[in-house]
Write a structure and sequence with these properties.
Layout (H helix, E strand, L loop, with lengths): L3 H21 L9 H24 L10 H27 L6 H20 L3 H23 L3 H26 L1
Helix pairs in contact: 1-2, 1-6, 2-6, 3-4, 4-5, 4-6, 5-6
């Protein structure tokens, strides 16, 4: 079953987190990247706002989260994600390995989409998981070579992937 409201929420949530990742990418990128990161942030925010409008106007439409078990599993997944991401970030910061924080967070965010596949019955979330995990790994091996913060590479990669899925949510909404 297709859930129109869930697709609108994909646009909203993925657009918001794309905006956030592009923002984190601005920690220490190359100077020539800054304006493009600002533009990407603005476009991601626009997609988010469109998604919010569509979500609000379709609030009574069916959602995968209308099922109590699905909603409970969703909350468990999100709580575990926040805990693991925060705990790992804390450990990296205490160890003075700040450069691993953003790849770690992207890795955990990616992994959490594996569990959300069953919640939303959406196999595309496996692809989202794989792409975010790949971004986290690529960032670890490229940021030093490019002489930028790891958050620049992680933020650009995660922001781009999430932006793509936000736009996909809009397309699926309009096609439903």
């Amino acid at each position: 079953m297709e859930y129109v409201r869930d697709y609108a929420m994909y646009a909203s949530i993925f657009g918001m987190f794309s905006f956030c990742w592009f923002g984190w990418a601005q920690e220490n990128p190359r100077a020539s990247w800054r304006k493009y990161l600002g533009i990407a942030s603005g476009i991601a925010l626009l997609i988010c706002l469109i998604g919010i409008y569509l979500s609000v106007t379709n609030w009574d439409a069916p959602s995968a989260l209308s099922d109590t078990t699905s909603f409970k599993n969703y909350l468990i997944s999100v709580y575990i994600e926040f805990f693991l991401a925060g705990a790992g970030a804390f450990v990296f910061i205490k160890m003075k390995r700040n450069q691993f924080v953003s790849p770690w967070v992207a890795f955990i965010v990616g992994i959490h989409f594996i569990g959300l596949k069953t919640v939303f019955d959406d196999p595309s979330l496996y692809l989202l998981a794989a792409l975010l995990v790949a971004v986290s790994i690529i960032a670890l091996f490229t940021f030093q070579k490019l002489h930028v913060a790891s958050s620049a590479i992680t933020g650009i990669g995660a922001g781009t992937v999430l932006f793509g899925f936000a736009v996909l949510g809009l397309i699926r909404y309009l096609s439903a």
